[in-house]
Amino acid sequence: MEKNFFFKPWIGKNYGQYSFDGRSGLKLLILGESHYLGKEAENKDNKNFTKLVISKHLNEKGIPFFTKLYNLLNNSDLDQNEFWGSVAFYDFVQTWIDEPRVAPTEEQFLNSIPLFYKILRELSPDIVICTGKRLWFNTPDDSYTFTKKAEVGREFFQGYYTVDGKKIMATFIIHPSSSAFSYAENRDHIAQFMNESFVQLI
Q1: 9 CB neighbour count, 10 Å cutoff
Q2: Which of 8, 82, 190, 191 could form a disulfide with 78 if both were Cys (CB 3.0 to 4.6 A apart)?
């Protein structure tokens, strides 16, 4: 029996209408690593927790993690509601992590791979951006093709997944919650990656 998502993805109502540098109609999937339980015990069985968190970010209080993603990936005049309405967000690890700043176990990463393929098939994104190098190196490599190591202040890797015959361009950014996060480095990398991806998507 195929597994079902524990944390259902956020799918913007206009998913598939993301734009970058004048290229519109893109399906962008932003990949988070995990949710930690912490003070969220009352939500431990809430399969819509990802949707709840982003809704809170938009409607109640800004969460720095999501604000940084918006500032980094939005190069048009969209406001936050419009931006998050045009993309999808999914947490790779499909079980709770007990505390913040604690890495998922190898088993948790491995057990989440089948559902990662399921989300790729269901959402059929053009582009996947992983939030963090650790997450990047724990995504599956059996359908992944490496294309480039980019030097933009630091090393970034990029390539593509092939799922059901579709090429899905993929890379990572420095985690927005990391002390190493830099808008300058990430923006230079994303701009280069996007423009190279557009050539592949023609």
Answers
A1: 19
A2: 82
